């Protein structure tokens, strides 16, 4: 049996979480345009390893240089051959992505959208789990693992519906080169995705920061833009981040734990 001091600490921690959830839910309901900025931490509970931290891919294998896109442009045929072979340190990530399924946090964001309380998701993840959970208003700033994209005209196709008869593939629309939709290190953010992120941020008066470390730009700049515009930030993350000092409400729990709680409280408030 836990000691009285331990029980008091646990109760206090639980109470703090409930108070933060209540404050977050009230702000969401009172806001006009809520946007969720989602990072890699959100998908860890779906079995996808993070890039940074003790178990991160970069910790294990070393952080890649910023020349990925340059290597693609220098020799796209070789790049495609290596990609299709599926070898190298990224194999662990590819295997995890193939097996991953949405967690409770993904389903909670989809429900929040269905309730009319979440207007958009800007995700830094390439895993397609928001779509699988039922969300529809999504911008994938770093692309998607299940799509291919023309680097000239930005037309996208489901990867499993695009027949690769030569490498590099050619765009049937404009004849440009086709690559995976995922944004490589050193690759510019696709202009259509970046434009939509900026548009959503400009309308946002409340941004949920879900599982993002706040160190990868340009995504890390969007919360700063919201604050400069007078909007509010809610951080939902078990760990302190570079964006914590900007946040008015902090929920110290994983996405799979706290987002269903947030949706439940939003339901209570909107039903009252």
Written description of the protein model:
With 272 residues, the protein is α/β, with parallel strands linked by helices. The chain has a domain at 15-64 and 102-142 and 189-271: 3-Layer(aba) Sandwich (Rossmann fold). The protein is 41% helix and 13% strand. The strands form 2 sheets. Strands 3-2-1-7-8-9 form a 6-stranded parallel beta sheet, sandwiched between helices. A 3-stranded antiparallel beta sheet has the order 5-4-6, with no helix packed on it. β4 (147-150) and β5 (156-158) form a beta hairpin. The protein is globular and about 60 Å long. The protein starts with a helix and ends with a helix. The mean pLDDT is 90.
Short description:
The chain is of the alpha/beta class.
Overall pLDDT score: 90
- Discrete helix count: 10
What Rg is obtained from the alpha carbons, in whole angstroms? 20 Å
Runs in which pLDDT lies below 50 for 5 or more consecutive residues are: none
Shape: globular
| CATH level-two architecture of the domain at 15-64 and 102-142 and 189-271 | 3-Layer(aba) Sandwich
CATH topology of the domain at 15-64 and 102-142 and 189-271: Rossmann fold
CATH class of the domain at 15-64 and 102-142 and 189-271 reads Alpha Beta
Write the layout of secondary structure elements.
Elements: H1 4-30, E1 34-38, H2 57-61, H3 68-74, H4 76-85, H5 91-99, H6 104-114, E2 120-123, H7 129-133, E3 138-140, E4 147-150, E5 156-158, E6 178-180, H8 191-203, E7 206-210, H9 221-228, E8 232-236, E9 249-251, H10 255-271
Parallel strand pairs: 1-2, 1-7, 2-3, 7-8, 8-9
Antiparallel strand pairs: 4-5, 4-6
Helix pairs in contact: 1-10, 3-4, 6-10, 8-9
């Amino acid at each position: 049996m836990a000691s009285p001091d331990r029980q008091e600490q646990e109760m206090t921690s639980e109470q703090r979480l409930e108070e933060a959830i209540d404050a977050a839910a009230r702000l969401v309901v009172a806001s006009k345009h809520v946007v969720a900025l989602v990072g890699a931490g959100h998908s860890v509970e779906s079995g996808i390893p993070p890039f940074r931290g003790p178990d991160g891919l970069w910790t294990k294998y070393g952080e890649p240089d910023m020349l990925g896109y340059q290597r693609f442009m220098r020799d796209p045929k070789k790049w495609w051959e290596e990609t299709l072979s599926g070898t190298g340190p990224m194999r662990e990530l590819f295997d995890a992505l193939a097996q991953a399924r949405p967690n409770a946090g993904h389903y909670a964001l989809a429900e929040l959208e269905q309730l009319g309380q979440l207007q958009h998701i800007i995700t830094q993840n390439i895993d397609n789990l928001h779509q699988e959970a039922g969300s529809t208003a999504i911008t994938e700033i770093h692309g998607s693992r299940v799509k291919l994209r023309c680097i000239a005209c930005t037309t996208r196709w489901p990867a499993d519906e695009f027949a690769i008869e030569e490498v590099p593939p050619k765009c049937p629309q404009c004849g440009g080169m086709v690559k995976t939709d995922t944004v490589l290190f050193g690759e510019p953010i696709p202009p259509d995705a970046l434009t939509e992120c900026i548009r959503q941020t400009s309308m946002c008066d409340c941004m949920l920061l879900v599982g993002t470390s706040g160190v990868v730009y340009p995504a890390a700049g969007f919360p700063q833009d919201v604050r400069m515009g007078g909007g509010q930030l809610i951080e939902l993350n078990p760990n302190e981040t570079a964006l914590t000092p900007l946040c008015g409400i902090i929920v110290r729990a994983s996405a799979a734990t706290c987002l269903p709680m947030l949706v439940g409280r939003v339901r209570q408030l909107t039903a009252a």
